[in-house]
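Look over both lines:
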Amino acid sequence: MRVAAAILAVMAMIAAPADAKGMAAAARRAMAETHANGLAIAVIDHGRVVSVEAFGKRNAKGDPLTVDTVMYGASITKAVFGYLVMQLADEGRLDLDRPIAAMLPRPIPDYGNLDAYGHWGDLAGDDRWKTITPRMAMAHSTGFANFAFLEPDRKLRIHFDPGTHFSYSGEGIMLLQFGLEQGLGLNIGAELQRRFFRPLGMTRTALMWRPDFAANLADGWDGDGKAEPHDERSRVRAAGSMDTTIADLAKFAAYMVRGGGLSGKAAAERVRGSLPVTTATQFPNFLPDAPADTRVPGLAAGVGVIAFTGPQGPGWFKGGHNESTGNTLVCVERGERCVLILANDVRAERAFPMLVKAALGETGVPFGWEYGDQAGR
C-alpha cells in the first residue's frame, strides 16, 4: 500500500500544473529571459479550456496583446487541416491509404505548375507520385522538400520512396489539399468554417486574410528583435495560412483532445502515429536515421501531429514557426490536457520547454528533436 501511495504521489508531482497565478509568473519569466515582446497561453484540462491569457504587446507601437488579438497560426494549421482529413476519412469520403492520384481525373503532372498550389508538372518522369497517399502527406513522408522553392533549382522532386521515411513537407500537405479540392470538390477554407470554426464560436479564425482582423492584429519580432508586419495571406494554404486568436484556437485544441466529431477509432488513429520517426532532429530535410540508441522512443508521425510517450503516458504535439512566430500545442491523453502557446516573437520559443512544464507538469515532449540544439536556450 505504501509503495502504491508513493507511486501515486510521484505521478501527481509529474502531472501537477501551475495555477493561473503560477502560469502568469512563468509567462513573465519567459518574456524576461528571452526578451520576447508578446506571448499568449491557453490551458486545457479534461477537454475544456480552463485559462486563456495574453501578455506583452502586439506591435511596435506598444498596443497590448489580448486574447482576441489575431495572430499567425503558422504550421499549427496543419493539425487543424489534419483534423478535417480525419473526419472525412471517418465519414468514408476519403481513404487515407488510397493514392491522392486516384482522386483526380488527370495525372498529377498534367496539372502543370500552379502558383496557388505547387509545381506538379515537375514530377513528370518520376512515377512515384502515383503512390503518395493522404496518410503519407499528413505524416510528412511524401519525399518532397518542405517547399520546392527551397530546392537549389526551385523544382519539386521526390527524394525517397514515399511512405518510407519522415521528412517534413508543407508541399505534401498542399498536394493533399489539391486532391481534396479538385477530386472531392471541397473548398478547404469554407469546409473548415462550416465544420469547426463557426460551430465552435471561432469568430476570428480563417485561412485567408479578412479586413476585420486589422483592428486587433499582431505583428511580430524576429530573432534579432526586429519588428515584422503581419502577412495578409490572400490564399487558403492548408500547410500554414491560418490566422487565429489564442481564445479561438484554444477552443479547437480542446475539441481535438476530447475527439470531438470523430468516432473513438478515428480519434485514436489520428494521434496513434503510423510512421516511426527515426531522425535525430526534425530539420533539416532528408536526415539519415539516427543511431537506434539515440532516437526518441515512441516518436511517430500521425495525421497532422507527432505522437510521443512520456512520464504521463501518450501525448501529441504540433509546432508552428516562421521568422517572427513561435507556436506550440502539446497534449497528453491522460486527463485530456493541453497547453497552447502562441508567440508573436520567435525568441519566445526558447522558453517553451519551461512553459509547457509549468502548464502540464513533466510531459516528455521531445523539444530536442523539434528544435534541435536551440531547445531550451
